[in-house]
Amino acid sequence: MAVLATLVAVHALRYYATLENVWLGVDPDIKAVMLRAPLQALTHMLIAPAALLLGPLQFLPGLRARHPALHRWSGRAYVLACVVAGAGALATSPFASGGWVAGLGFGILAVVWIGTTVAAWISAVRGRLEWHRLFVRFSYAMTFGAVVLRLQIPIGYALGYASYASMSPVPAFTSWVPNVLIVALYSILDARRARSLSRPVPGPAASPTAG
C-alpha cells in the first residue's frame, strides 16, 4: 500500500510543472478541467500527494509508541492536507470531465473524505482513540482512492473506453466505495475479535466438597 501510494504521489509531481505551462504527461481531459478551474484543481492536485505519503505513517504502531510527538505532528499534517485537498476536489467536482455523474461521485468522495478526516482529528483531541483509529481507516481508504483510480484507468482503456472523460463516471465511484466497504468489513471483524479476546476464560468446574 505504502509503495503504491508513494509511486502515485511522486507521479503527481508533474502537476507542479503546469504552473510553468508545461503539460508533460497530463491527460488532455484533465488539462481541460485544470484550465477551466485552475485554482480549485491545483489546490487538490498539488496537496493531495502529501496526504498519500503521510497516511501510511499513521498506521505504524512502532511510530506511535516510540515517537508519539512525531505521530501527532504527522497526523496533523495529514489532516491539513486532506482538508485542503478535499476542499479543492469539492470545488473542482462541478467541472469534472465525465459530466455530472463523475462530478457527483467525486463530490461525494470529497465531502466524506473531509468529514471522516476531521472526525478522526476531533476523536484524537478528545482522547477517544478507538473512534480515532476507526475514522483514520476510513479517511485513508478514501485517500487511497487516488491510487485505485490510476490502476483503473488502463483497465478502462482495455475495456474499450476511448478517453478518460468517457470512463470517469465509473471510477468516480469504484475508486473509493469498495475501499470504504473493505474497511467497514475489516473494522467489524476486528471489533468482534477484540470482544472475543476480552471475554474471561471460564475456569475449571469446582470440585464437590466432601462432606
TrEMBL record:
Q: Name one Pfam family in it.
A: DUF2306
Q: Which domain of life is it from?
A: Bacteria
- Membrane-crossing ranges are 38-57, 77-96, 102-122, 134-153, 173-189
Is Ribosomal protein included in the keywords of this UniProt record?
A: no
Q: List UniProt keywords, sorted A-Z.
A: Membrane, Transmembrane, Transmembrane helix
What is the protein's name according to its record?
DUF2306 domain-containing protein
